[in-house]
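Readers outside the structure-tokenisation community will struggle with the description of the input data as it stands. Showing the layout once, in full, would remove most of the difficulty. For illustration, here is how one protein appears when written out as sequence plus structure tokens:
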Amino acid sequence: MSENVIFTARKIVTMNPANPEGTAIAIRDGKVLAVGSLEECQLWGPATIDDRFTDKVLIPGFVEAHGHTADGMNALLPYVGFHDYPMADGSLAPGVRSYDELIERLKAVDAQTPPGETLLANSFDPIYFDDQPRLDRTHLDQVSTTRPIFVRHASGHLATVNTALLEAEGITADSDVPGVDLGDDGQPSGELQEAPAMNLAKAAMAAFMSLNADPRIVRLHAEMCRNGGVTTSSELAGAFLIMPQTLAAWQPVIDDPDFPARMVVCNVPAMPGAPGDYDAAAATALALRESSTDRLRHGAIKLVIDGSLQGWTAKVMWPGYLTGEDQGLLLYDQEELNRIVSIFHRNRLRIHCHCNGNGAVEAFIQAVDSAVSEYAWLDHRHVVEHSQTTTPSQYRRMGTLRMTANIFINHVYYWGDQHARLTMGPDRARGMWACRTALAAGVPIALHSDSGVTPVGGLRTMWCAVNRVTASGQVLGEYEKLTPYEALHAATLGGAYQLHMDDEIGSLEAGKAADFAVLDDSPLDVEPMAIKDIPVWGTVVGGTAYPAATPA
């Protein structure tokens, strides 16, 4: 048995209603012994008192239950997103604010790239430039007419490529794959929408898949988590079932004592929209679950059934998008989705289902309803992921079915203005990310960053849920605001509940992991608009402290 350690603090917020606050936390073997006064914690016997946090506030570590290690790609590939992006070393990668700036940045990369290599760039989003023609091959041809160029959009659901790539991969107007966008001339515009079309760019997608298996990616992601106060994160597009070599590469990195986070991997059973052997995938997922370690957890399934709202590929029910040509794309028909969901449900494998549009939410609700009627696993906690346009009636049915919602609340700030003006219209946009409606319907919620799409960090997601302020400063959906306590609950215990880990993490109480964020102030005490600006000292995971990086 190891020696007890007691950390003292100005305040400890526990998220345990029976014991809501303290000024000391006792730890043994990486777990919480007690929270209270120093004298109360000393009742557990001799202890080393660590006073490095005496002037800080400790809260349960944030739980990012919908993350992606793809945020590490922003350090390994040219970053061309609109907003500045915080990196693992504490620096900021500057955003791209015009097409001219994008082209100049890519030209600089092109000059440094060996001949014959495809130029890859990450996180561009044309929706921010709606006063310009949609980004297409002619823009990227200004960078190179000979080198293939592949610019992945921030959502991960679309990409724009140049003419050289179209020609190298044989992508033409006759390519019989949905999502190959055609321009006014009837030829491919260079925009590839959703996985089936993006996979036509074989060399570029192979390079992205190779990066997904790179152990540097998960390490960089964990360091970004540490900087943002996140102690448990997730990979919601895990490749362990379709690329088993990824597990062999990641396992030693995550199990290293210096790794600053816990990771939960939810694996895709097949490429989105592609056929797969789902019975075999379920068997493999169950076997993986038995090999879970303290820092790496397995055993859940990720399904992707629609696309991106800002890419106009999410499935939206009538009347569809305010602008754009159609109502998006479902990647599975209802009968096939029912069959897939039933397989994983009967194997008691939790399903996290990507549903940006309410049309996709409707399909997933119907599939879960069918599965529950066949097999009564009542504690499934199947998750509607993103849940951006879920309607009140859908939330009521989700509550009846014991489903949960992980709400992509950061969209309020990053794309709220665009959704009000371009995709949904002002009235529907005010009802998006409906946190208050979900809670009223009895649906447990979590909040997420979709890291790589927006920066990981619980203070930002809390801030968005509490204030619902867009980048232009407008409040979008006053009714759906959460209180700071409700937002902190969703960002800690809410995520832990969805991961079936609320008995281990999410609050600071006896028997749970000693995982907490170390802050300069409590998000429950500052002005709501100041929540996102609270400095983060770092985290403690299993009793070990991990200071956040600061720029050199």
Residues 381 and 403 are 5 Å apart (CA to CA). The domain at 69-206 is CATH 3.10.310.70 (Diaminopimelate Epimerase; Chain A, domain 1). The mean pLDDT is 95.
